[in-house]
Amino acid sequence: MPHAPPLGALLRQYAAGSALTCEPVEQGLLNRGYRLRTTRGRYFLKHHFDPETADPAAITRQHRATQRLADLGVPVAPPLTGTDGRTVAVVGGHAYALHPWIDGRHRHGGQLSTEQCARLGALLGVVHASLERVMPAEGRTAAKPADGAERGQGTAPTEGADPARGADPADTFALIDRLLAQVRRHRPSDAFDELARHRLLERRALLERHADRRPPQGGSVGWVHGDFHPFNLLYRDGEPAAIVDWDRLGIHPRAEEAVRAAVIFFVRPLGTLDLTKVRAYARAYRRTAGATPSELAAAVHRVWWERLNDFWILRWHYERGDTRADRQFPAASALAVWWTREYESVCEAFAG
Q1: CA nearest 214: which of 146, 294, 308, 293?
Q2: d(C-alpha 139, C-alpha 113), whole Å
Q3: H helix runs in the chain, sequence order
Q4: DSSP, res 111
Q5: What dihedral angle (degrees, nearest 10) is formed by the CA atoms of 119, 120, 126, 127?
Q6: What rounded mean pLDDT belongs to the chain?
């Protein structure tokens, strides 16, 4: 098994018995997880692999937050505590955490009824409101935006972006030119190259028409999950069983997380949004989070601008040679075009 964790040392540290089976779960883009069965039960073992989030102190902060959220009744899966009183085990220079195994399945928006979409929005609103209660109030400065894969799988400003305003279109035009050159050099040329070239030229034309719509400074910030999307939410019997993967817990504009999450949950395969479900979700979120329609409308504009300037999948493909996110590109790239055309309808769905 590649990257096998040091099970003996870890299980001794948690007094979790002896390993019977250990199977990798479908890996995310940043960390590794294992379905673990021991003589004492079933667990989820997480290897905090991403160097940007593998600091034990930061992981411990996340763990404390989830425990406090659990105490408030939020569906989370706090980690187990080791024999040394800690929730983070560092073995061989790598950080691990052991969680109870949660039976459940992931669901995207197409698998949710309109009522379930409303409950989803209410859940995220409860998360934001609860984080306000359990996290420190000091230091309310929005964190620097991360790579797209680290912010809901596909929302990233281009390099050189001002976090207060979003991407600078001049930087995006330069990036488009660089990516087009890489597409032309790629051999043998394939269908992905053809689609990439089409979308890059299309996006450049859109940006030329809308370059004057760069958003102003963002809305109020607060503690957010940071990566709220279908693969970080487990359902059981039609209800949310656990919100997982709190690696990106941080201070960001709350309403923008609500919009980004909806865009990921409710995007259709051809790159459109199910606005009926968005509307139910957004109304419930506003109610439980105490957010105003104007806050959501401003967040819609900022996330739309991010999407318009977003090329993280192509950068991974052509600059890193990493193709794991390629399957997301058709819908993600089509969404930016559709959203621009249907801008007013999208705003109304979130803020109406």
Answers
A1: 308
A2: 39
A3: 7-14, 56-71, 114-134, 169-185, 191-210, 254-265, 275-289, 293-308, 312-315, 329-341, 343-351
A4: G
A5: 160
A6: 90
